[in-house]
């Protein structure tokens, strides 16, 4: 690729991110997200799946946590975590695909210093570094923190999509299971 097409792709990626932020702000400000999640809550398992999709984004995590907690109070915690985990894994996969196919392509452009780039490439080849990225990325996905950081770490590690799906599903299941346990305790 030439430099002009690289700049165009980078500008497209920035535009997509900005539009996503604008859409998320509109959803929150107009209470559309709350209405969607309230409707989803009444659908029980399908609601867990829908809330799971929203569990992945920095802009929709908080309402999704509340919705998943409320669903877990009246339904099986295991089924809530399972269906919510599947929804969250799908949401994570969308973000992972974006990072993997678009953003990671621009990573070399963003690193200004060649020595840092060489160090990162060397570290990425180490087996310990790969397992560390799996662990750190997975723990971030399991936590109530938004998944974008964990997905970015996993996306840059060049892992297979099948491994990513498995890690995302397991760690989201654990995170939503803990949300359900806490919701039932209070």
UniProtKB/TrEMBL annotation:
Taxonomic classification: Bacteria, Candidatus Nomuraibacteriota
Protein's name according to its UniProt entry: TVP38/TMEM64 family membrane protein
Organism: Candidatus Nomurabacteria bacterium RIFCSPLOWO2_02_FULL_40_10
UniProt keyword terms in alphabetical order: Membrane, Transmembrane, Transmembrane helix
Transmembrane parts of this sequence: 14-34, 46-65, 77-99, 128-146, 161-183
Keyword Membrane part of the UniProt annotation: yes
């Amino acid at each position: 690729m030439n430099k002009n097409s690289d700049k165009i792709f980078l500008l497209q990626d920035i535009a997509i991110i900005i539009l996503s932020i604008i859409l998320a702000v509109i959803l929150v400000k107009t209470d559309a997200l709350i209405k969607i999640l309230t409707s989803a809550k009444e659908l029980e398992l399908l609601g867990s799946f829908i809330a799971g999709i929203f569990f992945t984004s920095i802009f929709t995590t908080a309402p999704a946590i509340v919705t998943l907690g409320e669903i877990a109070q009246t339904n099986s915690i295991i089924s809530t975590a399972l269906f919510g985990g599947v929804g969250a894994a799908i949401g994570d996969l969308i973000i992972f695909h974006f990072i993997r196919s678009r953003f990671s392509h621009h990573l070399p452009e963003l690193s200004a210093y060649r020595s840092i780039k060489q160090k990162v490439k060397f570290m990425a080849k180490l087996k310990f570094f790969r397992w560390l990225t799996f662990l750190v990325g997975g723990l971030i996905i399991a936590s109530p923190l938004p998944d974008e950081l964990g997905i970015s770490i996993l996306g840059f590690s060049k892992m297979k999509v099948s491994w990513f799906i498995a890690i995302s599903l397991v760690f989201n299941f654990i995170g939503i299971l803990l949300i359900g346990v806490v919701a039932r305790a209070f």
